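Hi V.,

You were right to ask for the full record rather than a summary. Here it is.
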Amino acid sequence: MNRINWAQELKKSARKIIQAGIKDLEDKEIKTNILIHDSRKRVKNSRAILRLIRFEVGEKNFKSLNILLRNLNRKSANIRKAYVLIDIIEKELEDSMNNGVRTILHNLKSKIENELVSSQPKINTNQILREYHDSFIAFKKLIDNWDFKKKNFSLINIGLSEIYEKGQIFYKMALKKQEVPIFHEMRKNAKDLLYALEIIRKGWPPVIKTYINQTKILTDQIGKMHDLYELKLEINKYYKGNEIEDLLKTSDERIKNLIGSSELIGQKIYAEKTKNFISRMKIITSKRFDVPESRS
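Predicted structure:
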C-alpha cells in the first residue's frame, strides 16, 4: 500500500483534461457542437480542480483563473444552449405522435436554427474555439509550473469541504423553493463534487465509485429537468393558447417527477455533516489500496 501524493494526482488529472482539449480542438474532423460541449465540460472540470486547491494557490490567483475560465464558458453559453434545445426537440419529435405538437416542435427547431445562423456575425464560433485552444495552452503551462508544498490530503481538505457544504446549502434551498433554476444551481455544485470525486477515487476505487454513480445520476436528472424547463421557455416565447397546452402539461409532469427523484438522490449524497464526510474521505483515501475496480 503506497501513500497517495495528491499534488501529483491533481497535476496529472488537470494535465490530462487540458491536453485532451487541445488535441480535440486541433482535430478538424470533430463537429463544432461536440467541440463546444467538450470544451465547456473541460473548463468546468478545471474550475472544480481549482476549487479543490483554492487555498493552496491563494485567493488572488484562484479568483483571476476562475474568472478567466468562467468568462470563457459564458461566451459559448448561447451557442451551447441552441445546440441543446435542438437536441431536446429532436428527441421530443421521436417520442411524440401528436401531429399538432410535432408541427410546433418542427417550427421551433427551425426558428432556433435560424437564430443560431443569424447570431454568427455577433458570436463567432470559430473565434470562441480559438480562445478555448489558446486558454488551454496557457493553462497547461500554468499546471506544469504548479509546485504544491502540501502533498497529502490536506492539500484538498478545505476545498472539498467547501464544495460539499455549498452543495448542501443549494440542496436545502431547492427542497424549500421547488424551483428548477435553484435545482440548476444545485447541479453546478454537484458537478464540482462529481469532478472532485473522480480525482480522489484513486484512493479506493470501488468505494468512491458508489459516490460517483449517485452524484452522476443526480446531475443527469437535474440536467433533464432543466432541459425541459428551457424548452418550455422557448415554446412560451413563440406560442400561446390551447395549441401548446398538452405539450406544456406533459413537460410539467415530467419536471415534477424529476424533482421528486432528484430530492431522493440528493438526500443520500448530502446526508452527512460536512466534517463527517471529509473525515471519511480522508480515511478512505489515506492509502492507495490495490483493489481491482468493479466493472459493473
